[in-house]
Amino acid sequence: MTGLSTHVLDATSGAPAVGVEVSLQDASGTELSSGQTDSDGRIGEINPEPLVPGIYHLVFDTGNWFSDNDIKAFYPEIDICFEVDDADRHYHVPVLLSPFAYSTYRGS
């Protein structure tokens, strides 16, 4: 399996963050693809094609999501910069989200 997926969880409610807009960009900021988290807070294939080795950004539109859910928050956008080093593997970038903090890691 190759490509890229993500998962956003709302740490405050303990529930999936449904409807977060996510954009995949290359190192120059050009959008390559985009999507919206589903009812489980996931985008299973934001980029189903293999990513060539290089630097990428996943940009999460958290400002609109927080606003749509009537949550006062500090981070209007999360930009996770990561490096692909193997085009033959699948990359998964999860986000644990709260109004005043977030965390991420290289998932599997």
From TrEMBL:
Domain Transthyretin/hydroxyisourate hydrolase: 1-107
UniProt keyword list: Hydrolase, Purine metabolism
Reactions catalysed according to its record: 5-hydroxyisourate + H2O = 5-hydroxy-2-oxo-4-ureido-2,5-dihydro-1H-imidazole-5-carboxylate + H(+)
EC number: 3.5.2.17
InterPro entries linked to this entry: Hydroxyisourate_hydrolase (IPR014306), Thyroxine_BS (IPR023418), Transthyretin/HIU_hydrolase (IPR000895), Transthyretin/HIU_hydrolase_d (IPR023416), Transthyretin/HIU_hydrolase_sf (IPR036817)
Cited function: Catalyzes the hydrolysis of 5-hydroxyisourate (HIU) to 2-oxo-4-hydroxy-4-carboxy-5-ureidoimidazoline (OHCU).
PANTHER family: 5-HYDROXYISOURATE HYDROLASE (PTHR10395:SF7), URICASE AND TRANSTHYRETIN-RELATED (PTHR10395)
UniProt family annotation: Belongs to the transthyretin family. 5-hydroxyisourate hydrolase subfamily.
Name of the protein this chain belongs to: 5-hydroxyisourate hydrolase
Source species of the chain: Gordonia amicalis
Gene: uraH
